[in-house]
Amino acid sequence: MYGLGVIVALGSDFNPNAYCLAMPMIMHLACVYMRLSMEEAITAATLNSAHSLGRGRTHGAITAGRKGDFVVLDSSVSSWKHIIYRFATAAPIPS
Prior knowledge:
The chain is mainly α. The chain has one domain (2-85). It has helices at residues 23-33, 38-45, 47-52, 82-85. α1 (23-33) crosses α2. The longest helix has 11 residues, at 23-33. The chain is globular. The chain starts with 22 loop residues before the first helix and ends in a 10-residue tail after the last helix. Residues 5-75 form the Amidohydrolase-related domain.
């Protein structure tokens, strides 16, 4: 679809038939079953999803002037790609 210029957006949709609230899992499934690259999957889950909601100019990317909610957990991480393939259970955040 990307080759044809189609803009792909990802979301959990909170479908009762496929209960999943984890966006990393959604991105993982897109990489495995839709053959998206990790860059395409994270763009589809962030910027493209914001555009699908009519908020692409104000949300969906970490740039000056945009609104956003995010947490920096470890500034020494050299790559973001692990978030799509690493799954873990919740743990308390050390203070």
